[in-house]
């Protein structure tokens, strides 16, 4: 049955409308969870607030299981769901650069939009930075292209790398998530902070 | 501390369902940096069309019948702004302010926000997506790239947290 638009069960014209509706849900939940506050987000790195960890892994596990069950029930054809391709070098270095950006700026791009929506000036400045960073990458692209394309492994899944089924990998991720939730609660007790 | 936000586990499950909805309807997940990229491409190709046409980066997204602003992520991010605003309005959190740890000045916060944004923007292009597009969505489809993004992004931020502690605690 699904995904509905790639199979033209719903017309292509609806795709951008769906994107807008999905975005409303995304932005609403990010703001409700407190992701519009950089001090709440950065809390995970100092232990006083681990909401990022809980929401991030809660969402990843929910969507992961949802896809596996939908596939099992024949509701979605996983071959038509986009899997981002792996380019080892640029994925690792890109992740490291974003990690520095995260601890310095206290936001990631998605949450900065929900913060801008409620008037956070620091998020607006962060977004200005994202524009500059992307522009810098675009201008430097001819120099970076070789590295950007290096270590290409295609749309590879971690379950295939490990030689296990998607369901078993999801099980491992759930165990890892539960351990992290538990560690998160311990950290919040150990490093409590006043209202922030 | 009294909680003024949604329970994080509930928020996680709801966010996961939104992501699942994107997969079910559009066959793709969430994202954010891609919308900024589309805007940068549009700005550059408007101001310097020749430069954009000759660039191996911009030329991928422009040309005959292509409009980088008519993209899924651009519309999704417009939705994020609406959704965030609605949530903030309902919760009484709409307020123009620079939020920062009281131990640092507002200017220092803004300088670091700018530096962080630049790094995140650059890194998101190198890593083919940010926390939502590469890490969250990638993990949900079990993509190796998604797990690498998540691990390197959070790992680096944890590893460097000590050096940035004066900004936050």
Describe, in plain words, how this protein is organized in 3D.
The complex is a heterodimer of chains A (196) and B (169). With 196 residues, chain A is mainly alpha-helical. Chain A has helices spanning 15-32, 38-46, 51-72, 88-105, 109-117, 121-148, 158-162, 166-190, and strands spanning 86-87, 152-154. Chain A is 68% helix and 3% strand. Chain A has a two-stranded antiparallel sheet. Chain B is 66% helix and 0% strand. The longest helix of chain B has 21 residues, at 106-126. Classes of the chains: A mainly alpha (196), B mainly alpha (169). The interface between A and B is large, with 136 and 123 residues.
Approximately how much beta-strand content do the residues of chain A carry? under 5%
* Overall body shape of chain A: globular
- C-alpha Rg of chain B (nearest Å): 19 Å
Question: What would you call the quaternary organization?
Answer: heterodimer
SSE topology string of chain A:
HHHEHHHEHH
> How many beta-strand segments of chain B?
0
The N- to C-terminal Cα distance of chain A equals 47 Å
Number of strands of chain A: 2
Mean pLDDT across residues of chain A: 96
Q: Roughly what percent helix of chain B?
A: 55-70%
Keywords:
heterodimer; A: 196 residues; mainly alpha; two-stranded antiparallel ribbon; globular; B: mainly alpha; 8 helices
Walk me through the topology.
The complex is a heterodimer of chains A (196) and B (169).
Chain A: H1 15-32, H2 38-46, H3 51-72, E1 86-87, H4 88-105, H5 109-117, H6 121-148, E2 152-154, H7 158-162, H8 166-190
Antiparallel strand pairs in A: 1-2
Chain B: H1 8-26, H2 33-47, H3 49-54, H4 72-91, H5 106-126, H6 131-140, H7 144-160, H8 165-168
Helix pairs in contact in B: 2-4, 6-7
């Amino acid at each position: 049955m699904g995904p509905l638009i790639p199979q033209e069960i719903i017309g292509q014209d609806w795709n951008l409308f769906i994107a807008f509706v999905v975005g409303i849900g995304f932005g609403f939940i990010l703001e409700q969870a407190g992701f519009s506050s950089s001090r709440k987000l950065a809390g995970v790195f100092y232990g006083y607030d681990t909401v990022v960890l809980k929401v991030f892994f809660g969402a990843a596990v929910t969507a992961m299981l949802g896809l596996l069950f939908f596939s099992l029930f024949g509701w979605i054809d996983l071959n038509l769901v986009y899997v981002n391709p792996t380019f080892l070098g640029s994925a690792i270095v890109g992740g490291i650069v974003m990690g520095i950006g995260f601890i310095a700026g206290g936001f990631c791009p998605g949450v900065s939009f929900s913060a801008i929506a409620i008037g956070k000036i620091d998020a607006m400045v962060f977004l200005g930075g994202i524009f500059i960073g992307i522009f810098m990458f675009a201008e430097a692209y001819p120099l970076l292209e070789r590295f950007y394309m290096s270590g290409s492994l295609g749309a590879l899944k971690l379950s295939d790398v490990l030689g296990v089924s998607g369901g078993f990998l999801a099980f491992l991720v759930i165990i890892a998530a539960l351990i992290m939730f538990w560690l998160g609660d311990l950290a919040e007790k150990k490093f409590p902070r006043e209202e922030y | 501390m009294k909680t003024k936000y949604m329970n994080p586990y509930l928020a996680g499950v709801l966010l996961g369902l939104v992501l699942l909805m994107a997969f079910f309807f559009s066959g793709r997940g969430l994202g954010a940096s891609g919308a900024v990229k589309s805007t940068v491409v549009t700005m550059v190709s408007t101001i310097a069309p020749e430069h954009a046409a000759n660039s191996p980066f911009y030329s991928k997204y422009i040309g005959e019948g292509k409009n980088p602003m008519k993209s899924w992520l651009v519309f999704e991010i417009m939705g994020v702004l609406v959704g965030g605003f609605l949530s903030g309005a309902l919760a009484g959190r709409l307020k123009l302010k620079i939020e920062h740890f009281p131990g640092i000045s507002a200017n220092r916060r803004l300088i670091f926000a700018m530096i962080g944004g630049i790094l995140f923007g650059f890194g998101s292009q190198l890593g083919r997506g940010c926390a939502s597009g590469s890490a969250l969505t990638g993990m949900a489809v079990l993509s190796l790239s998604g797990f690498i993004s998540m691990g390197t992004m959070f790992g680096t931020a944890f590893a460097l947290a000590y050096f940035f502690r004066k900004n936050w605690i």
